[in-house]
Design brief:
The chain is α/β, with parallel strands linked by helices. Helices cover about 40% and strands about 20% of the residues.
Length: about 300
């Protein structure tokens, strides 16, 4: 995801809100993400990617229209909260950024995208996957990864055709991301000839899933799909082991994290998670980027 940030910044420059300063134009690039709270590891990782891209561009001595430019990061915290996210978007509009690299959460991105549209500033996300984000067709809203239509189908097809499991129980955290992805998985499971034996709900604040898992265990599910974040999927996987549930846990890209591995412990084995893009090792200079990022941060 972070590999895309130089491209995102280039797209944002199309907005070209800039301030002249001593013969050098300062071009502000905004970033909004959850850099506080339980999702801070996602938000800070993303923000660091933007910071690194800006440093790389500034080191090259960029010019636009024959004038020297310097990119400047303006970073805001949305704490994974829609109200705070829309307020942060308005703050970047008021600060006249040229564009913004934004949002880990679809539930934040969807309402905030209207703020950016209304002030005419392009926003680009490398993480918000709910298809509703781009449905308005605004020329200020961009996404550079697969949406939940593709991710849900991939997860369901893998479960049905590779794992050869047809009876699936699903759990979602009722966020725009979790519910949207789970809806797509349900549809794809049915298209693949499978059956949804249970649909359960939790929240993105929950840590105890014993009652939900006990109910699912009695319904003969061959696999459990969870639409939500690593802060929930980690404890969920550990509790599955405690309850003697040996079926695999299948989840989205937000489970593919070090935080999940830490929270799940040894129970992490037997979990399948998607990647909403391509592996870094298959991208041009991907492995070099990963090494540089690790060294920098």
């Amino acid at each position: 995801m972070k590999m895309s940030h130089q491209l995102l910044i280039a797209a944002a420059v199309a907005g070209m809100g800039s301030v002249a300063m001593a013969q050098e134009q300062i071009i502000k690039i905004g970033h909004i993400g959850p850099v506080s709270g339980p999702q801070a590891h996602f938000g800070k990782d993303d923000e660091n990617g933007v910071r690194m891209a800006i440093e790389d561009l500034n080191a090259k001595g960029m010019e636009i229209g024959g004038k020297k430019v310097k990119f400047q990061l303006v970073a805001e915290d949305d704490a994974a909260d829609p109200k705070q996210g829309t307020a942060a978007a308005q703050k970047l509009c008021d600060d006249k950024v040229a564009g913004a690299v934004t949002f880990v959460n679809s539930g934040v991105a969807i309402p905030a995208s209207k703020v950016f549209h209304d002030c005419g500033i392009p926003m680009v996300t490398g993480a918000a996957t709910n298809p509703d984000l781009t449905k308005p067709g605004w020329n200020t809203t961009y996404r550079v990864i697969a949406n939940d239509n593709a991710l849900g189908a991939a997860l369901a097809n893998y479960t049905a055709h590779v794992l050869k499991l047809k009876n699936v129980a699903v759990i979602d955290d009722r966020t725009a991301y979790g519910q949207g992805l789970t809806d797509q998985v349900i549809a794809a499971v049915k298209r693949a000839g499978g059956e949804i034996v249970a649909r359960e709900y939790t929240t993105d604040k929950a840590t105890d899933f014993t009652a939900i898992l006990t109910s699912i265990k009695a319904k003969g599910a061959e696999a459990i799909f969870f639409g939500g974040l690593d802060a929930q999927s980690g404890p969920m996987r550990r509790q599955m082991q405690t309850l003697g549930i040996t079926q695999p846990l299948v989840s989205g890209e937000m489970t593919r994290s070090d935080t999940f591995l830490k929270l799940a412990g040894e129970a992490a084995n037997g979990t399948y998670a998607s990647l909403a893009g391509v592996p870094l090792k298959t991208m041009a200079q991907g492995e070099q980027f990963a090494a540089a990022y690790k060294a920098r941060f």
